[in-house]
Structures are given as structure tokens and as C-alpha cells.
Write a structure and sequence with these properties.
5 helices; about 325 residues; disordered C terminus
Length: about 325
């Protein structure tokens, strides 16, 4: 509590001890509740739920109320989205795509082949100006390159939820001033390469800590995917990210089961959902909720996997397209 607040509390207390005063109380400030001008914001019940989708009024994350306090412009946070890549040309995302200030810019900002062919920042990856693709089109036959362009759509959808810009078009992200770092570990399908995910986490740590070109505002890794078995190397990488000041946010998974890890009635591949089930101090496991603020039927749950819930049903967000955003059911 700051000094002014403490003084106000004492003043109110003194007034209430005065027999001539019936009662005294603090009146909370009223806020205007910022609402972006983007035309599809009204469809984004997770940000501001008025029952527009048949849901429960105010079953949302109170984004408008939070934006009245801080719209994210005070500090530009960088969120690394490790997923199927990102459509970095999307009109609701392109202004918020992170660029590596240690690498020379591509001549054409939408064409990764126009880089200068030099590893300018010395991290072993040539022309990683807008992140990195660790797998190529097929995660089972990984071929790395500097083009994390999303074809499947999941990474683009997640990125829009996190940081779609407020530009009078489409919808908005939770933090429409955040920068999104594209990292591709899923090919042109929903299949992810968990071994490449470990390399991706190490890449993010390097970007965060590299001197003199480190990225101090790289604060979050988002992993909206899960695997059926724990990898010690992945937990080690997540812990190392935490030591570097990076929060790791992981999806609880979409199996619809209790992933406590000790239910003998479940087959082994259902006895946990990793990385959300890892016991790491800087990892947050997130279940999906619906427009009534109930657990989504497809979402995993349980104390080993889940720290909190967040909207994940019929979330209006970006998909790889040049002229619109669309509604999907990604959790």
C-alpha cells in the first residue's frame, strides 16, 4: 500500500470514530472501460463478455477494465510463440511481429530469402530477422530455415489472441502493443516436433541473454500444445528459461481428462500432459474455459497440469489470411 492510500485509510478511520458522522467510506474510482474501435471486437467474448454469444455476462478476462489501467504501451513485452509458425504478413499481426535487431533486415520484409546471407548476430542461424523455423514443412523430416511462415493456422490464431494489433480492422489481442516472436516447431499440420521445441526454447534464452544484442523485454514463451510423455531435457530448458526471467505458459491439453499423473485407470499416455505437468516454478499450466466461465469439455484438468483457466472456446482470432480474421475452437 502506498503512503497516500494509507493516509486515506487513516482519515476514513478517524471520521468513523467521530460520533457526529454516521459513517464514512472510500468511493472507488470509476473507469471508462476502453473498447477498441476494431469492428470485430464485439465478437471477442473472452475479452468483454456481454452475453453476445449466448454466454454469461462478464464471464471474461476483464480486458477492457485492465486496459483502462495499462494498455500495454508502457512497456513493450515480447512473447515468443512456439507453435506452427505465424502468418507475419497478416494485417492484424504484421505491425506487432518482433524483429531481431542483431540481424540485418530482409530487403523485402515479407520475403525471408532477401536477407543478406550473413549470420550478423553470431548465433549460428543465418538471417533470423523474424524468428526461426526449426522444422520446415514436415516436422518428422526437419529442415530448418529462416521462414517461420504459418500454413496450418494454429500459431497464427494463438498469436492473434496474444497480440493482434488494434488498427480498426478485425479484432484485437489481449496486449495489442506486445511484440510476437515467431518460432515454428510444427510443420504444415498440427503435428509438433518436441525435440525441436527444446532447441526453440534454447534459442529464446539465447535471444534474451545475448550481449550486446539481448532482448530484455522477452518475458514470455507460449506453448499451446502438449505431448504425452515427459522429456527431462525439456524441463531443463524450461527451468533455464525461468532462470533467464522468462515465464513459460503451457496448454493443459485437449484430452478432456484429469491429468494428475497417478490415475491407474488411465493408460500411460493419459497419465499427464506435458509440458504443463512439469513441476517448474516459472511454468503456468492453462486449462480452457468457455463463455459461461466453465471448464471446456475438451480441456484437461487436475492439480498437476493446471494453474489457471483462460477462454479457449469459439475465440475470434487471426488465421492465415490477408483480409479477415475468423472464429475457431482452438484451446
Amino acid at each position: 500500500m502506498n503512503r497516500q492510500a494509507a493516509e486515506l485509510d487513516r482519515f476514513v478511520s478517524d471520521l468513523n470514530r467521530d460520533p457526529a458522522i454516521e459513517y464514512a467510506e472510500k468511493i472507488p474510482l470509476a473507469y471508462a472501460q476502453l473498447e477498441p474501435s476494431d469492428p470485430e471486437f464485439g465478437q471477442q467474448w473472452p475479452l468483454h463478455n456481454t452475453g453476445q454469444s449466448g454466454g454469461t455476462n462478464d464471464a471474461d478476462i476483464d480486458a477492457s477494465e485492465a486496459w483502462d489501467v495499462d494498455d500495454g504501451s508502457s512497456t513493450t513485452i515480447v512473447v515468443a510463440v512456439i507453435d506452427t509458425g505465424i502468418d507475419y504478413s497478416h494485417p492484424d499481426l504484421d505491425a506487432n511481429i518482433w524483429t531481431n535487431h542483431g540481424e540485418d533486415a530482409w530487403t523485402d520484409p515479407m520475403d525471408p530469402s532477401t536477407g543478406n546471407g550473413v549470420d550478423d548476430d553470431g548465433n549460428g542461424l543465418v538471417d533470423d530477422w523474424k524468428g526461426w523455423d526449426f522444422v520446415g514443412a514436415n516436422p518428422l523430416l526437419a529442415r530448418q530455415d529462416n521462414d517461420p511462415k504459418d500454413i496450418f493456422g494454429h500459431g497464427t490464431h494463438v498469436s492473434g489472441i496474444a497480440g493482434a494489433v488494434s488498427n480498426g480492422e478485425g479484432g484485437v489481442g489481449v496486449n495489442f502493443n506486445a511484440k510476437i516472436l515467431p518460432i515454428k516447431i510444427g510443420g504444415d499440420s498440427e503435428l509438433m516436433n518436441s525435440l525441436k521445441a527444446i532447441q526453440a526454447i534454447d534459442y529464446v534464452i539465447d535471444l534474451k541473454t545475448r550481449s550486446p544484442n539481448g532482448e530484455p523485454n522477452l518475458r514470455v514463451i507460449n506453448a499451446s500444445w502438449s505431448m504425452a510423455a515427459p522429456l527431462t531435457a525439456m524441463k531443463t530448458a524450461i527451468d533455464a528459461a525461468g532462470d533467464a526471467g522468462i515465464l513459460f505458459v503451457a496448454a493443459a491439453g485437449n484430452g478432456g481428462f484429469d491429468g494428475v499423473g497417478d490415475n491407474i485407470d488411465q493408460p500411460p499416455f493419459l497419465q499427464g500432459s506435458w509440458p504443463a505437468a512439469f513441476d517448474s516454478k516459472t511454468l503456468v499450466g492453462v486449462a480452457a474455459t468457455d463463455h459461461h466461465d466453465d471448464l471446456a469439455g475438451f480441456s484437461n484438468y487436475g492439480p498437476k497440469n493446471v494453474d489457471l483457466g483462460a477462454p479457449g472456446v469459439h475465440y475470434y482470432s487471426t488465421l492465415p489470411t490477408y483480409d479477415s480474421v475468423m472464429t475457431t475452437d482452438y484451446g
